[in-house]
Structure formats: C-alpha cells, structure tokens
C-alpha cells in the first residue's frame, strides 16, 4: 500500500503518436518577470508558467512593491515596471527552493535603497550563493549573511548598485551571471563582465541576453578572436522597454516526452512551440537522442522524435544543458552499451545532489553505475528491476524516472507532488501519450 503521493506507472501497451506543448518555461518566466519589473511601463506576459518556482518570484516581486495583475486561467501577468526603481525600501523575501528566484531577486534588491532579506527552505540554505554575493560586492553592493557564511539567508543593504568592472569564472550555476546581467543596465555606472575560463551552462546566459534584447537592452558580447570563446560582456546603461512577451514551452520539461518516444520503437511525439528559433539551449536534447539512434525532425517551431529499433549508449558532455542529464540517464537504461555523461558539477548543488541521487535510483532499477568526479557512467541492466524511486523533493527525479515506467513494469515514483515546482500537471500530460 502506497501513500496517495506515490504513483506506480502503468507501462504503455503499444507505441503512441501524440502532439503536445508543455507549459511555459520556468527559466524564461522568471527572467521575463524580472525584466518586466525593471521596464519603463506596463508589460504583458503570456503563456506564463504557474508553479512553485514562479509563484515564489511573483510573491517576491509583490513584496518589493511591484504592481502585478495575475490571471492564472489565461496564463497571463501584467507587470507595471518602475524603470529600475525598487518601490519598497525593505522586504523579507521567502524564495522556497527556487534557485532562479533567490539569485535574481538578490541582484534586483541591490538596485534598491534600503534593507532586504532573502531566505528559503532547508535545502535552499544548503545551496551556495557566495559567488553571486562576491560578484555584487565587486560592483559595489553591500551584503551580509544571516546564517552560515556563503549560504542563505542573505541581507542586501542597498543604495543603488554602483556598477563597474567584475570578473566571472566557471561557477556552479550560470544563474549568478544571469542575475547580474539583468540588473546591470540600471547600475549607476556601466557594467563590464570579464569572463574567465570555460563557462557553465552558457546557453542559459545566451538566453538571458536574448531576452534582454527583446526588452530593449542589447549586451555586447566580445569573443576571443582565436578560440571564439566568450571573453567579455558589456551591458549598456539603458531602460528596458515596456513590451509584450509570450513565454516558450519549457524545453527541459519537453525532454521527458521526447525521451518517452525515443525508448519505444515506433512511438512518435511532436512538441509544439519549440524548435530552431527557441531561446532555450535544452532543445538540443533532441540531438542527443538522435546521436543515440532516435529519428528527429527539427522545425522552426516544433520538434518530433520517433523511436527506432535500437538505441546505443553515448559518451557526451552536458555542461551546456545539465538539466537534461537525469532524462538522459533514464534513457541510458534502454540503450545498448554504456553511456557516459560528463560535465555534471553543477548537479551537486541543485534541488538535491543529483549525481548521487541518480546513482542510487538507477542501481535500484538494476543498472551498474560509476561516478568519476563529475562524470556518471551507466551500464544498463538486461532487464529493469521493479523499484520504488525516491525523488529527494526534486521535480526532475520524479519526471525523468517516470519515463522508465512507461516501458518497464513495477516503477513507482514517490512523492509526485514535487513536480509542482515546475510542472504541476506533468503526470496528466504523460498519461496523454498513452495510445487508446
């Protein structure tokens, strides 16, 4: 007998053919909300994601004094931007376990004039924020820790962000850099960011800059003339424009449906609203499935994946799109030969230590797993062992391992409510794939 929060996935009896669009991107929703709050006038956002992470952002902006008109039934939010001004001179912001929320709002508060405290749940207090605080201090901001050094809660003692030149290395999260970039146009002096070393999750930084451009501020990216690697970003001092913006479907969440098709010969799924024009780097996960043997069609605004007779293990670096690592790890269970997933250092400071969590749960299903530093090597089992999968309060553990249950019997996902973080209706949408 399982609790109501546990769900045993019934394997799909036959191949399916389905078309769907996941809800709006969490990454784009939270970025767009910040940029809209900074804009000079009213912005209308459509296809907004309403989930735990984005509600944390909406709540934070409200507590900072921004006027929001929210219509969940229509998935819209109208934000009255204040041209770089933070309305309230103080606020206590509770960010739950939303990394984008606490990082983006920490930087946003530095534009204000007053004292702001940002905190989260127990897991958030274990997730480092020191790199962002150091970056803000380089730009002249004042910040202190209210608990353990380097971790939330943090206090921002703001007198508008001075600005200047700062350096950014290969950090555990690109969200630190995105947080700085978004607020930089409203610093008192021009902000220049010197980039050092190989960048983590660079597509997310590129996404941030493309979205800033949509709102009327275009960062200048300077690349090394020989290696073409990013070397410096110069952010002009300019107001964001009031504009409308339709949030794309979430590419990370689309990966689960693409994977479900890939592991079943003859199955086919089309994701609408994502394609070659997408701002999200995680659309590249379709190419990863293609490397393993799945058929794909990549249109301007759609992606189709069709399962083939055999998938093969691969050796791949997912430094640029780490949020797809768990999906790939589950696909590897159904591939021929081992799969090596590299570049996973950022996974250790997510909602849980995802490298350790993946190893634990893959082994339950019969796989042999090796961890070498930040690399994960998966040897698939001859047959999946029925198991109850712990989710560690991590939405991506629940959604990725549910895909295994569509092909193999006896896979139970514990605490399915954790998907409320970014995709409250995930299991309903997964059921839509089932062929009648």
Strand content: 15-25%
CATH superfamily of the largest domain: Enolpyruvate transferase domain
Q: How many helical stretches?
A: 12
Q: What integer is the average pLDDT?
A: 94
- Counted up, domains total 2
Strand order of the largest sheet: 2-15-17-16
How far is the first residue's CA from the last residue's CA?
A: 28 Å
Helix content: 25-40%
CATH architecture heading of the largest domain:
Alpha-beta prism
Brief synopsis:
By secondary structure, the chain is of the alpha/beta class.
Verbal overview:
With 436 residues, this protein is an alpha/beta fold. It has two domains: 7-23 and 249-431, UDP-n-acetylglucosamine1-carboxyvinyl-transferase, Chain (Alpha-beta prism); 26-236, Enolpyruvate transferase domain (UDP-n-acetylglucosamine1-carboxyvinyl-transferase, Chain, Alpha-beta prism). Helices cover 28% and strands 24% of the residues. The protein is built from twelve helices and 23 strands. A four-stranded mixed beta sheet has the order 2-15-17-16, with helices on one face. Strands 4-5-3-14 form a four-stranded mixed beta sheet, covered by helices on one side. A hairpin with a 4-residue loop joins strand 4 (67-71) and strand 5. The radius of gyration is 21 Å and the shape is globular. The mean pLDDT is 94.
Reconstruct the topology from this structure:
Blueprint: E1 7-8, E2 17-20, H1 26-38, E3 42-46, H2 52-63, E4 67-71, E5 76-80, E6 90-94, H3 99-109, E7 113-119, H4 130-138, E8 142-145, E9 154-159, E10 164-168, H5 175-183, E11 191-195, H6 202-214, E12 220-223, E13 230-235, E14 244-246, H7 251-262, E15 268-272, H8 285-292, E16 295-298, E17 302-306, E18 315-317, H9 325-331, E19 339-342, H10 354-364, E20 368-372, E21 375-379, E22 387-389, H11 395-405, E23 411-413, H12 426-431
